[in-house]
Specification:
By secondary structure, the chain is an alpha/beta fold. The protein contains eight helices and eleven strands. Strand 3 (48-52), helix 3 and strand 4 form a beta-alpha-beta unit. Helix 2 runs parallel beside helix 3 (60-70), helix 6 packs across helix 8 (195-208) and helix 7 packs across helix 8. The protein starts with a strand and ends with a strand.
């Protein structure tokens, strides 16, 4: 049974999240304090963390940043804010996905299920894949070690950033819509927010492009989608 840690200071929302997930077969624990939630996440074993963005004692973004330094499990940011800047901030420090309040039981469970499934697939691939290097001269990616080099300098990527880059590098010159990338990397189709893809692509450009505002390698094909050009 997968274990989900809920870090949420609103009792009503925490109960809704816990009830929805428990009914669907997940083992859950609620912590209503940011500092204690961080301690709980680092001290015990969980498969996914639901993390509220706005906590009174400690910012959810800071918690996510500290968690990501030590944990690779999925972190799903929960936010009541609608501004893209807040979502981008959370995704930028390592959150895998986000869900905006108010949300339905179906959406919450679908997001949790999809992120757990994608993490399980990635973990299985890491242990079974034969070491392969994608080498495009400027870019080198080792699928076994998950190390990426740009101009012979190693660059670190968060979980979803790496998976997205790997997929694009494995399919050079092929154009993918945001929806197709979201379904492939996050495992969701009908439910989800494909803007998450745009945020992660922006993060990739910041790390591998000389001029992120005018990308030469992760290109936007207007009206069609995105492609990787070596």
């Amino acid at each position: 049974m997968d274990k989900v840690l809920i870090i949420e200071d609103d009792k009503a929302i925490a109960k809704i999240e816990q009830d929805f997930l428990t009914i669907n077969g997940y083992e859950t624990k609620v912590v209503m304090n940011g500092h204690l939630g961080l301690e709980e996440a680092l001290s015990n074993s969980y498969d996914l963390i639901l993390l509220d963005l706005m906590l009174p004692d400690m910012d959810g973004v800071e918690i996510c940043k500290q968690l990501r330094e030590k944990l690779s499990i999925p972190i799903l940011m929960v936010t009541a804010k609608v501004e893209d800047a807040d979502k981008i901030m959370g995704l930028g420090v390592g959150a895998d996905d986000y869900i905006t309040k108010p949300f339905s039981a179906m959406e919450l469970v679908a997001r949790v299920k999809a992120n757990l499934a994608q993490y399980a697939r990635a973990s299985q691939q890491n242990t079974s894949v034969v070491s392969e290097v994608l080498d495009y001269g400027k870019f080198k990616l080792n699928t076994k070690t998950r190390r990426v080099f740009v101009d012979n300098i190693e660059v670190e990527f968060k979980n979803r950033e790496y998976e997205l880059l790997l997929f694009l590098m494995s399919n050079p010159e092929i154009v993918f819509t945001r929806e197709a990338l979201y379904e492939k990397i996050w495992g969701l189709d009908a439910i989800g927010d494909s803007r998450t893809v745009a945020v992660h692509l922006s993060r990739l450009r910041e790390k591998i492009e000389k001029d992120p505002a005018n990308p030469q390698h992760i290109q936007t094909v207007w009206g069609a989608g995105y492609r990787f050009r070596p």
